[in-house]
Amino acid sequence: MAPNNFFTMGPYRARKDKARLSVIDKYDVQGYIAAGTYGKVYKAVGKLGNDVDKLYAIKKFKSDSKDNEVMHYTGISQSAIREMSLCKEVKHKNISTLREIILERKCIYMVFEFAEHDLLQIIHYHSHPEMKPISQSTLKSAMFQILQGLSFLHQNWILHRDLKPANIMVTHDGVIKIGDLGLARKFSNQLQTLYTGDKVVVTIWYRAPELLLGARHYTPAVDLWAVGCILAELLSLRPLFKGEETKMDNKKHMPFQENQLLKILQILGTPTLYDWPSLNNYPEYPQLQRFTLFPSNIKAWYANNGGSDPNCFDLLSKLLIYDPAVRINSLDAMSHKWFLQSPKPVQNIFEGSTMKYPRRKIHKGDSDILGGANNSIYGGAVSNVNANSRANNKRKIPNSNNANIGNIGSINMNNMSNMSNSQINQKRNYAFMSGRGSNSSGFEDNSKRKR
Q1: Which segments carry the region annotation Disordered (predicted)?
Q2: Is pLDDT above 50 for 141?
């Protein structure tokens, strides 16, 4: 006969914890491949059932810990909850697929499909030791797939807000995967402005001018500006607007990013009220008036960086229009004449390419999961490396500690694999996208709709 307290919460938790498999039981962790303010991303191989020998990327969120023991448990960060909730809902071939979420010893592990490359790595390979231009087929296919994934997000009322080459993954078979939804946010039926929840969004080099001018309300156009910056970087193999970020003195006052805006003005020229009618409504407009007037140099920049296709230049120009109300959207960009001319986009962005891109570096000796000496495996060879070498190649990720948890969409934490009710006490089942679409995610994929 069961004891009196058998059906109470305490024994129930104990039974669930005993039956739950550890992340080490499920995956053979090879080492970490990336590190940042959020924590670390590990490469792992499946050990059980259908996952045997399959590759995965495990994102472990940073916690206050020492020797694997959490010293001060502060709960689940708002950014982590937002990323988990959206990744559980979003299903698209050009967005990183979340396999499962594991909560173990008060640490969160998000298990994603593994991608062997990212665009930052590819750009670095083409620019070192000498410049090797990316082929038109690879460039066009990559851009089309980025727009395809972004179009799906926007049609389902999600802003990414941190698009950059480091967050655009590429699988071994050449499929683009948009990753890192930590700053992503739903933008329909908002209770507060987007600015209220996150005052700093998008890595500085890819930040749209309306954000630099202090916009309280903004649209999916901020993501399209970032796509324009990525296109320019794939063409020139260097960032288009490589400004220096002004650090915050305190959390209450957001500094004006003067140097970054200057880099934009020097290439695109100074905007006018004729080009951008709402320009004088932005909080930082008086700061803009202090700048010297610059002419547009974007045509000269394009020609100096080997650009010769007028259709490619036309798309780049439309992605980098100052006025967000006029800037091209993702669906229209996918229909642009550049994608209709030969060579046309293909599913495998590496198709026809002779380039052999190196595999990701794997850093061993991680005290969080593995332990042991600090060394690196790179293409099978073992050598000592600095554990921060991969992190130094990453673009800086903006601070998202102030993310607004109130508008994160449908969390539905009950469906999260291996997460107990006792450890998740956030509000549940927000009405994120009721009645849209017919796929298993509850989203509608209109990227193939007739235009």
Answers
A1: 432-451
A2: yes
330 or 2, which is more confident: 330
Residue 83 lies in a domain: no
The strand pairing partners of 44, in sequence order, are 29, 56
Residue 21 covered by a domain = no
What is the secondary structure of 85-132 as a DSSP string? HHHHH---TTBPPEEEEEEETTEEEEEEE--SEEHHHHHHHHHSSS--
Q: Which domain holds residue 444?
A: 117-451
Bridge partners, 36 (sequence order)? 39
| CATH code for the domain in which residue 170 is found | 1.10.510.10
Catalytic residue among 162, 180, 198, 445: 162
CB atoms under 10 Å from CB of 406, counted, come to: 13
The pLDDT value given to residue 403: 39
d(CA 176, CA 155): 19
Whether omega for the bond prior to residue 343 falls within 30 degrees of 0, making it cis, is: yes
Task: Give pTM, 2 decimals.
Answer: 0.77
* Alpha-carbon span 370 to 112, nearest angstrom: 19
Helix axes 136-155, 221-236, angle to 10 degrees: 170
Q: What total of structural domains would you count in the chain?
A: 1
With respect to residue 100, please indicate whether it lies within any of the assigned structural domains.
no
Q: Which two tokens stand for residue 268?
A: 């695109």
Q: Say whether 162 is catalytic.
A: yes
> What is the number of other CB atoms lying within 10 angstroms of the CB of residue 405?
17
Q: Is 221 inside any structural domain?
A: yes
Mean pLDDT on 124-153: 95
pLDDT grade for 73, boundaries at 50, 70 and 90: low
